[in-house]
Amino acid sequence: MLRDAIRVLVANWDGSYTVPSRRLYPHQWSWDSAFIAIGHARWAPRRARSELLSLFGAQWRDGRVPHIVFNPKVPDGAYFPGPDFWQTRAPSGTATSGIIQPPVHALAAWKTHLAEPDPAFLRRIYPRLVAQQEFLRTARRSPEGLISIVHPWESGMDNSPAWDLPLQGVQERPTGFVRRDIDTVNAEERPTDRDYERYVALAKAYRDSGYRRPGAFHIEDPLFNTAYGVAEQALAKIAEVCGLDPEPHEREAAAISAAMVEHLYDGDLFQSRDVNTGHLIHSASAAGLTPLMLTALPGEIADTLIATALDRFALKDGVLPSFSPSAPEFDSVRYWRGPSWINLCWLVWQGLKDRRPDLAGPLADGMLTMVARSGFREYFDPFTLRGHGCWDFSWSAALLLDVVAEHGLDGLAAAGGEVGEELGGLVKADHVSDQVPA
């Protein structure tokens, strides 16, 4: 299984970065590259550094890191919406999208450094990471101190039921676009045509504003704000290595945690807030569990989140669905409406390792078991563990390497997985030297 994970990453490597999937996602995606770098760091740290530096090579002058960096060698019609739709380029001349994704990159940079300490790499990427955060503070911060998103794609959880209500206000207009995703994946596993019509309408309106003005979808999302806060936590550590003052980052991390508690916590779970209406959007999204990663989160709130995870998400079973199975909107196979995703499990695992190791262990074993049963799929049915979406998905392979490096394989073996003894030494707790030239 570990050798197969490296096979996936090698097959999806494009010279300086890794595509999420050769057929379905043939370009570079922002938060995918962060998760992929975390896995690369465990076996080929040079590739991890290249992954992040390649992405930040397409950073805009205002500091935003676009959610897609387009490969000019890929035919124009291979992915929609492509460069012709977005009509924008980074200062480097590279065609990109104009929206963003959760800023998990500082965490990825720090974990890459831990795998193979490289202060020169941190000094190189630190100002770019700071510029990314400054863009969010300048362009997306609300008076309440929270960071907003302007498109469901910016959340990373595209068609989450949490977005059903705010998307009702989006006027979809038929534009004659051709979806490419359902040429590769069963339509029942993907967002609907109506979803896409709304996505395209929102993206077009934002594009036509010069990528400045939010439209009908203007949301403060707990996962995105958690990623922002965790980035500040990581930047404080990076600053220390670079000989800089970590205190501004520590202060910012504490401030975003306090703002989330005040404005997004409903006493049971963290929720999204509609900036246009000022109201919380009550849903059962597992995004509301990710604030467990925030070190400044009060202990009593963390305890309540864990109780919610056990009660409403069946966390004790070791598999975390993206939406509560008890909710009427839950769908076990359709994209972000219920399936289990390795990256979301990994984020919650990060928040549990120190707070509740007794729950973190089974969640790590659950991630390994999903892959052992179904391979490196994009997402998994949380009940049957059957894989869905595309095959050979890069962040599933990458994050498995990270989980094994830190957690080991004993739990998988106990669950019935057959793992050869020679594989146990392939990924070590620190890193394995590069086996493929970067």
What does this structure look like?
- With about 450 residues, this protein is mainly α.
- The chain has one domain (about 1-425): Glycosyltransferase (Alpha/alpha barrel).
- Helix content is about 45%, strand content about 5%.
- The model is unreliable at about 415-438 (pLDDT under 50).
Task: Provide keyphrases for this structure.
438 residues; mainly alpha; Glycosyltransferase; 3-stranded antiparallel sheet; two-stranded antiparallel sheet; 7 strands; 45% helix; globular; disordered C terminus
Task: Offer a concise description of the structure.
It is built from 17 helices and 7 strands. It is mainly α.
CATH architecture grouping: Alpha/alpha barrel
The strand line-up of the biggest sheet is 3-4-5
Enumerate the spans where pLDDT stays under 50 for 5 or more consecutive residues. 416-438
Structural class: mainly alpha
C-alpha termini separation = 22 Å
Helical fraction equals: 40-55%
Q: How many domains in all?
A: 1
- Report on the biggest sheet: 3 strands, antiparallel
CATH class: Mainly Alpha
Beta content:
under 5%
CATH topology: Glycosyltransferase
**Total of helices:** 17
**H/E order of the elements?**
HEHHEHHHHHHEHHEEHHHEEHHH
Tally of DSSP β-strands:
7
| Morphology call | globular
**Cα-atom radius of gyration:** 20 Å
Mean pLDDT: 92
Layout of strands and helices, then pairs:
Layout: H1 2-11, E1 28-29, H2 30-40, H3 45-56, E2 68-69, H4 83-86, H5 105-115, H6 119-139, H7 152-155, H8 164-167, H9 193-208, E3 219-220, H10 222-241, H11 247-263, E4 272-274, E5 279-281, H12 299-312, H13 342-352, H14 357-374, E6 379-380, E7 387-388, H15 394-407, H16 410-414, H17 421-424
Antiparallel strand pairs: 1-2, 3-4, 4-5, 6-7
Helix pairs in contact: 1-15, 2-3, 2-5, 2-15, 3-5, 3-6, 5-6, 5-10, 6-10, 10-11, 13-14, 14-15
